[in-house]
Amino acid sequence: MTNSLVDLAEETECYLIIGSNTTENHPIIGDHVKRAVTQRGAKLIVIDPRRIPVAEYANVYMQVPPGYNIPVIAAMMNVIVAENLEAGEYIAERTENFDEFKASLSDLTPEKVSEMTGIPAADIIEAARIYATSAPAAILYAMGITQHTQGTDAVKSLANLAMLCGNVGIPGGGVNPLRGQNNVQGACDMGGLPNVYTGYQKVDDEAVQAKFKDAWGATLSGKVGMKLTEMGQGLGDTIKALYVMGENPMITDPDLRHLEKGFDALDLLIVQDIFLTETAMKADVVFPAVAFAEKDGTFTNTERRVQRVRKVVDAPGEAKSDTEILCALSKAFGYNLGSSEPEKIFSEIASVTPSYGGMDYARIDAKGLQWPCPDKDHEGTPVLHVGQFARGKGAFASVSFNMPAESADAEYPYILTTGREHAHYHSGSMTRRSERLSKVFPEGFMEISAIDADKLGVATGDTVKVASRRGELTTKVRVVGTISEGTVFMSFHYCESPVNVLTNTASCPTAKIPEYKVTAVSISKV
C-alpha cells in the first residue's frame, strides 16, 4: 500500500474499490470504509462482477463483466480529461508521458465502454466526477484486478487514474493493494520473488550481487528465476525436485489435472507446512513446521508495517520453526547459515536491506515501523512518494485493452470467476479445520443468477456438473441476485469441488499471474 490504514480511515474523502470484496476478505479495512461513508460522509465507488456487500454503501456501483476492468477505468479517465477535471499542476510538476497517455484514451468513451460492458454510461460519468472532485481519493484493489492476462496493465491503469487526479503522495490517497494473508508483504520484502533479493534489490545487478556475496561469503548467480506458474509448467521436465513451503498448489494452482501429472513426475517433492495438505500428501518428505503463535519473528502487514510476532504456545510433536528447519538442512549440505535466533536474523536483514536499515527489535517492540526506514533516526514512512516519486517523475502508461484469453461460446456459454468466502482462506488448510467455521461454510457452491438458473432448470441446493476445456467437477448451486446473467462464481477453498480443475493457465506476460477470474464453462444439471 502507498498509504496507511489510519489515514485511509480518517483522511480519505472518496474510496474506489475495484476487484476486492473488502468487507468480507479484509473486514477491518472494510469497517474503516463503512464508518467513513456512514459517519464522515465519504464517497464510495465499487466496481466488481458481483454485487458484493460493500456495494450497498456505494454512491455508484458498476457491475463489470470479468476481464473488463481496464476499459471501465479508461472510460472514467476519458471523462476526467474531457471535462478538465485532472490535476493539471500536479501532472506538469510530478509526471511524464501525459500526452501519449491522454491520446490512448480517445476511443474509450463512456458510451463505447457501455456497449462493451453493459454498464450505463451515466454511471461511468458519475463515478469519474465523484473520484476527480473528492480529494483525497484512495484506490483499494485486490486479486480481482491482478488475476487476469492483463493484470499488470490494469494496475498501471489504476496508477494512471491516481496520478491524473493528484492522489499519489498525499494522506488519504494512493493506490492500495490489499494483501491476502498476514505476511504476504513480508515474504515479498524478503526476496520471495524470482528476480530480487531482500528489499527488491535485483539479482542481475552486479553491484547488488557483490554486496550479498560479501555479506554471505558465497558466489551468487545473477540469473532470474522462474515464476510460480512457469514452475508449474516445468514440473517433471525442467524441474526434477521441488521444495514447497506454506503453499498448497494442489488446490490453488490453475489446471490442476495437468499440475498433478507434473507432481507425479518429480524425482523428489519436499513439503514444509503446519498441516498435511493435499500437496503434502504427495510429498516424499514432509517437514512439520510451526504456526504463527508457536514462534518468534516479524510479519510485515499490508501497510508495510514491520511488527513483532511472539511465541505464546509450544509447538506440538516434532514441529520446528521454518528457520530451524532451513538452518539444519543447509548444515547437512555443508553450509552454515548461522544462528536461527529470530533477532539475530532480523539484524542481518536490516544490515543488507536499505528499506529495513533503521529497524531493530527494540524499535518495533510495541508498534512497528513502516518501510522505508533507512536509519535509526528515521520514523518510518506512512505515505510513499511524498514530494516526488521514487523514480523521480511518475510515468503515465498508455492504455491498451485485449480480450481475456477465453470468451463464452456455444460449447462453453458461461464465464466463471473465482474468489474467497468470508470464513475461509485460500485452500482451507487452516480454516476448514475449524469446527465452527466449517459448520457455517461446510461445502462449496456455485453462485448463479435466477435467469440462468431458470434456463438450466436448477434451484438452490441442486447439484450441477461444471466443465471447462481442462476438466470438470460437480458442485451445488446457490441462486443469487448479486451476479449478472452469463456469469457464475465459485470459491477455491474446497478439495471436494476444486475449482482450479477448471481454470486456465493463460497468464499475464509480465507477472505470470494466471487468469483465474475468467474461465469459459458449461453447466448441466446432475
The averaged pLDDT comes out at: 94
Q: How many distinct folded domains? A: 3
What is the general shape?
globular
CATH class label of the largest domain = Alpha Beta
CATH fold annotation of the largest domain:
Rossmann fold
Q: What would your notes on this structure say?
A:
The chain is of the alpha/beta class and 526 residues long. The protein has three domains: 5-178, Dimethylsulfoxide Reductase, domain 2; 184-370, 3-Layer(aba) Sandwich (Rossmann fold); 414-525, Barwin-like endoglucanases. Helices cover 31% and strands 17% of the residues. The chain has 19 helices and 19 strands. The chain has a six-stranded mixed β-barrel. It is globular, with a radius of gyration of 24 Å. It starts with a helix and ends with a strand.
What is the strand and helix layout of this fold?
Elements: H1 5-10, E1 14-18, H2 22-25, H3 27-39, E2 43-47, E3 60-62, H4 69-82, H5 88-94, E4 95-96, H6 98-104, H7 110-117, H8 121-133, E5 137-141, H9 143-146, H10 151-164, E6 175-177, H11 184-189, H12 206-216, H13 228-234, E7 241-245, H14 249-252, H15 256-264, E8 268-273, E9 285-288, E10 297-300, E11 305-309, H16 322-332, H17 342-352, E12 369-370, E13 394-395, E14 414-419, H18 435-440, E15 445-449, H19 450-456, E16 463-467, E17 472-480, E18 487-491, E19 519-525
Parallel strand pairs: 1-2, 1-5, 2-3, 4-13, 5-6, 7-8, 8-9, 14-18, 15-17
Antiparallel strand pairs: 10-11, 11-12, 14-19, 15-18, 16-17, 16-19
